[in-house]
Amino acid sequence: MSMRLDHRPGEVIDRQREFTFTWNGEEYPAYGGDTIISALAACGERIFSRSFKYHRPRGLLTASFLDPGCMVQVDDEPNVRGAHRRVEPGMVVSPQGVWPSLEYDVKSANGAFGRFLSAGFYYKTFIKPRRLWPVYRRMLRRFSAGGTVSASPAQDYFDKRYAHPDVLVAGGGPAGMAAAVAAARAGAQVLLVEEEYELGGYLRWGDEAELAALRALREEVASSPGIEVMPNSVVEGRYDDNWVAVMQRDLSHVEERLVKARAKTLVVAPGLIERPYVFEGNDTPGVILSTAARRLINLYAVKPGERAVVFSANESGDAAAEDLARSGVEVARVVDARRGGDIVRVKGGGKGVRAVECSDGAEIECDLLVTAVGWTAPTSLINMAGDRPVYNERAARFFSSHLPDDVLTCGGIAGDGTLEELIEHARATGGEAARRAAKTARRLRGGIPLESEAPPAEISELPLYEHPALFRGKTHGIVDYSEDVTSKDLVTAEKEGYDSIELVKRYTTVTMGPAQGKLESVNAVAIMAETTGRTIEETGTTVWRPPYSPVTLGALAGRIFEPVRYSPMQPWHEIRGAKPLVAGAWIRPDHYGDPASEVLNVRENVGIIDVTPLGKFDLRGPDVPKLLNHLYVNRWDNLEEGRVRYGVMCLEDGVVFDDGVTGRLGPEWYVMTTTSSGAAGVGEWIDNWLQTAHPGWRIHVTPVTTAYASINVAGPKSRELLLRLTEGVDLSPDAFPYMRVREGRVAGVEGCFMWRLGFTGELSYEVHVPAAYGLHVWETLMQRGADLGVGPFGVEAQRILRLEKGHFIVGQDTDGLTGPYDVGLGRMVKLDKDDFTGKPELAWQSEINGRLQLVGLQPHDGSLVPPEASQIVEGESEIVGRITSSRMSPTLGRSICLGFVAEHLTTPGTKVVVQLPGGERVPASVTPHHAHYDPEGTRQRG
Amino acid sequence: MVERAPVARSPIAPAPPTTIEYGWEISARSSDAELKITDCTPLAKVLVLAPMYGELARALGVPFGRAARDTHGTLVVGSGPGEWLLLAAPGTNQAVGKRVEVVQDEGLVSVFDATHGRALIRITGPRTPDLLAKVCAIDFADEVTPDGAAFRSSVAKLVTDVVRDDSGGARSYLLHCERSSGQYLFDALIDAGDEFGIEVDGFVDPGDRGV
């Protein structure tokens, strides 16, 4: 049965674009511009969902974004506002949470037990026994009316944007448009946000005069430079200093975008929301609001029914009656509330309205009841701005009481009036908003407001029209359509002692559904007032908090920004199939296929590893030794030029913070290296000391981590390889011994420096080259060292090599309690230095006993590698240590470990018991040194 | 001893076709799109640290938060309190550094060649503020950040120095960050600019007209 009307003057559908979509498994026709629900209603469909608790059939109510009965599943997207979302060709739309079908939902049996499902039912019923909670949870989930979330990991594209408008106008109805235009004409940059797809508010479904006014206002907006219009977008929240969150939807390439706007002035112009009436049967399909009827008829050319009763208390109801009559609907009766008329109940069932019973006893057969009982002012944003709205009995709605200077209101939320009066008021408001924004802009730029700045604009007060206070009729009905909360539930809650609206909200869940109180809040307050005998003013409202409407998690997350860092040699690593290792923000090669072979190649030939992520700081100035002495526990004022020294940094509490080597390249020029993960922390640490404790020290510190590509060339043939590429440096052992630094030219690249170190335990050189030439030098090393067996090695091989050599890693072999005395570095701590970081604590540590000590450990079963963090135990369950590092050594052919043990277990040869994660206990012995391989250091000093 | 001449490479993979110019591997692509992005990493970058109000500061003539060209066409950026970044034509690092070093200043002065430590990107076109609004919280309105404004902020969650440096009447910004995140920043800007039709444009030595 087609309910589609012929052409309407204000219709938004495109009759030239006809297509089909699927609803509930069947194909339906639609026009471009139709919403999902308008297209279905045009085909005679009246039921679109089942209610949350009782699974009652639900149809149209508001025909807008807020419509609680029109939540549907679209493809794999749940909870879509079907009365707002435009239908698209091929769209697959389904009802949510029904079984076996929308028409015959077995869960509607809940309705039969409705009297037992009263307020607090869940709290009372499902609290005991506790052991059944999982069962309850599963059962309740089955009864939930929500849709189905896709399990696919594919995500839609969301992003964020910042905006800095002078004036942000929330609401694109006639008042919002007029305010925006006035603000723009006063020189302001304006962001105009509208929830609907088009600007215009109620003018869009109005008569000829209203449509003419709409066209004129739209033309003004379009021709005013400085206005950015965001349709299909919602102002979700207002925070301190007019930080305004806007959810933008009308984008072709982005699913949703969160706009973070810092508005100098906010103009709240959301219009008014039509309020439903509470009576028996008010959620029966076919009971709709007057604005819904007018939207359907005038925007979508859909006839809402065949025979209607209109219950009207205002002009909107009268206009709806006229629209219905003009569109061929038989208006059986207009019940005028202004003359004492009322309706008692709707009779009908699953298929919709059958008859309406009026207060005069008349029962009128019809399939449509249109109600127009009053308006709710959406005060959310002004509430978020600190305002506590107050109830006005004459107008039967809430108004603001006290707004901050940077928030203004216009339109229905500010008062009543003719269209001309409302527009004039809005223009004055927009101009004043621009004036205040300009004043704020001057203040933000440090300017002093001029004496001659424009005086505040005169904004005349809008009149308030008298309106009947209609909330609930003579019978009980649904208050919250989303949560299935009835007026009887509210009365019950009050009888149980929940006599505050905030308590009732939480107890009954009224106003907590997807409509977030915009349809039901005032009715709930009024019913509570009626029940408690207080006035509405005394009862008050709940507090409106962001978001104004439900927001997708994707939109909140936005586009995920995760900065990553690559070394200059990354392209080479990728081509060679290196397994990437995520180390903080760095992407590093973990290995190139076989870390054990990489280890052996370093031991036997020569390997190169990309160590660019090592933190590096260029230190210059006469006071650098003071800084080094302050940061490190060892002494630095005697470091000679050309030398490199290892140092350990501790925090004030004596805990090892970082380690690395620092070389002196010139009289007042040093380069410090840190651990890769510690670079940022050390940088902040240095800045902190220099800026707070020692601002007078003459030092320049520059982070140069990525200014140099760093390559460690390690292995017995490393010198031979570098001899082939290096100019200006004598690489002979006497001229360039262990722990020295030299500058020179490598592979034709000027400005390189290299130092001899031994982290791998082999003869090795750490070469630092200007980063843009890093790939060139790396490729040249590989090319020129082919006959020497050169090969790359990754982080895993490096970790094995250093463990064979017994070097600890900060963060791996230390924790938040480890001091230098605990890892065998006590001899480095120079307590005879002037004050340095951690000195008092370290002085204490030097005198105490009983702390865990880092030792080398050798499992008796050399084929067994105890997992890191395995505990070392004594007796039944006393924990006396732990394994901090463990690997199978390719060089030694057995497992090797570092670990902490209690002081009485540190003697070499002591047998300890390692408890594996599965509970099995295995023996291991403490080794004489941390180093399992070449403890004398012969190879690295070669 | 070494067969191949060293080739410098930007951290940003050059869009094909590529060529070697000024000793750098660069993109030879040319675009006439309204919104363009160019990897300018080959430009010489010299970092100067000196007293904020000393002789050298007076000689450089650019305060913190501003950028301006000197008589040599070098863009002098007041990148921090007592910190300047000088951007000049490729290969002029040493010459630029020497010009600075000759200035006598009583305070401690340090001059670094930061060419290899920074990635430098230029975006040009009328929609650049819209692009940046997607990745940076700063207000890019003329009144707040006019031509010549320089600041350090978070761009796509990365610490980035931004310089408004209009070119030939077109809105243009230079963005530089530490080198290792150059590709990330470039990709983030391309992604943000996709809806505005951003295209990659190859690097061309600005020559006498300055960077």
TrEMBL record, chain A:
Domain GCVT N-terminal: 570-833
Annotated stretches, region: Disordered: 920-942
Signal peptide: none
Keyword Oxidoreductase included in the entry's annotation: yes
Start and end residues of each Aminomethyltransferase C-terminal domain: 853-929
MF (Gene Ontology): iron-sulfur cluster binding; sarcosine oxidase activity
Record keywords, A-Z: Oxidoreductase
Domain SoxA A3: 478-559
Compositionally biased intervals (Basic and acidic residues): 931-942
Top EC class, one word: oxidoreductase
Pfam families named in the record: FAD_oxidored, Fer2_4, GCV_T, GCV_T_C, SO_alpha_A3
UniProt similarity note: Belongs to the GcvT family.
Name used for this protein in its record: Sarcosine oxidase alpha subunit
Organism: uncultured Rubrobacteraceae bacterium
